[in-house]
Amino acid sequence: MKAVIDSDVLIDYLQGFGEAKTEMDRYDEPIYSVISWMEVMCGAGSDRERAAAESLFRSMKRVDVSMEVATGAVRERRALRLKLPDAIIFATASSEGCFLVTRNTRDFDTSDPRVRIPYRLS
Q: Which residues pair with 99 in a beta bridge?
């Protein structure tokens, strides 16, 4: 099974949250958007954190912003009023024919079948 993993879940995984690891282990083809790479790497404050993030990203498939993704992002941003990074990540999932795994319940509709909210942090 494949899914696009949103930045928040990737960060949780890197911070050692068990729920994120359990979720990541569900997918034989985890995918990330280059936008998530930027978000994670901007937050990686030490050489150790950057190395851990790069190691995780090497184990996943990266999807860059193609015209297909860009066009989808414009459509999703207009339809759902998403911030542009969220729209790009969501469009990445659509372009890959899979769903988005995220904790972002503020911006994504939990009833949307294209979105999976696997856990919440309290």
A: 3
